From TrEMBL:
InterPro entries: Aldolase/citrate-lyase_domain (IPR005000), Citrate_lyase_beta/mcl1/mcl2 (IPR011206), Pyrv/PenolPyrv_kinase-like_dom (IPR015813), Pyrv_kinase-like_dom_sf (IPR040442). PANTHER family: CITRATE LYASE SUBUNIT BETA, LYASE BETA SUBUNIT, PUTATIVE (AFU_ORTHOLOGUE AFUA_4G13030)-RELATED. Keywords: Lyase, Magnesium, Metal-binding, Signal. This is CoA ester lyase.
Length: 281
């Protein structure tokens, strides 16, 4: 029997997903633990995680999983590869497909062409991994079919020679955040912090959140819970929001020009806390 998806995560809309776990399609044994983990969203990875001579077998593995009770996103190969068309043809009829992540997205039409080969309404995550993709981010975010943007940090660094210092990547992250806002998308998904858990991962999440990004990729199931914590409203923020909203409901008078922005922020924190089940955490 196919493993049950983590029920809390399964009920969370993907636009609010914080942790996005990549599960290698090189071995179907990776699928069950990923789906049972605390990851808000799970992506079966047929791209970076699978060598060229294993692509066809990985594709069959994923379609079989998505046809026998599993539900997940799938990272498909880039549009410039020999595998893209076959990936989409195979996935277009898979009942458990939640959406696809398009690797190496550099132009808006790549997203649209991908969406057109899938069932109507299938969301496409545009994974931006190059200098050209970053510069075209606003157009990509506004393309028909784009659901959310994601940052492929590793390939972007290889393309540009940038280090992993937050300052070196600040422009690219900001570009994705602004583009997402212009395209009226949910906040973008940051790249993974490879091989890092615990406090170091929490620190990386602070960088992600400070830039305005609202999700983060990860490669290990153990990272998901930390990312969820790091990209959720803090306890102090929740208390502040609760107090402000209570005072507002009791008839608090608008005191200055910053009141309405603060009220809007409190309402957003309240909504997120409710969605993430944090009020009684």
């Amino acid at each position: 029997m196919a493993p049950f998806r983590n029920s809390r995560a399964a009920a969370l809309p993907a636009k609010l997903s914080r942790s996005w776990l990549l599960a290698s399609a090189a071995d179907e044994a990776n699928f069950g633990p990923a789906l049972a983990s605390e990851a808000d969203s799970v992506i079966f990875d047929m791209e970076d995680a699978v060598p060229a001579d294993g692509k066809a077998a990985a594709r069959e593995r994923v379609v079989e999983a998505l046809s026998t009770g599993m539900t997940a996103w799938v990272r498909v190969n880039g549009i410039e590869t020999d595998f893209w068309a076959d990936d989409l043809a195979a996935l277009s009829k898979a009942p458990g497909l939640r959406g696809v992540m398009l690797a190496m997205t550099e132009k808006p039409e790549q997203v649209t062409h991908t969406a057109m080969r899938l069932q109507a309404g299938t969301p496409v995550l545009a994974l931006v991994e190059s200098a050209l993709g970053i510069e075209n981010a606003t157009a990509i975010a506004s393309a028909p079919g784009t659901f959310r943007l994601a940052f492929g940090v590793g390939d972007f660094r290889r393309d540009t020679g940038a280090s992993d210092d937050p300052m070196a990547l600040a422009y690219a992250r900001s570009k994705l955040v602004v583009a997402s806002r212009v395209g009226q998308l949910p906040g973008p998904i940051d790249g993974p912090t490879v091989g890092t858990l615990g406090e170091k991962l929490l620190d990386a999440c602070k960088v992600t959140a400070s830039m305005g990004m609202t999700g983060k990729l990860c490669l290990m199931p153990e990272a998901a819970d930390t990312i969820n914590q790091g990209l959720s409203p803090s306890e102090s923020e929740i208390v502040w929001a609760h107090e402000l909203l209570e005072a507002h409901a009791a008839g608090a008078v608008v005191g200055d020009g910053s009141y309405l922005p603060r009220l809007a922020r409190a309402q957003k924190i309240s909504s997120l806390a409710d969605s993430y089940g944090l009020w009684n955490a």
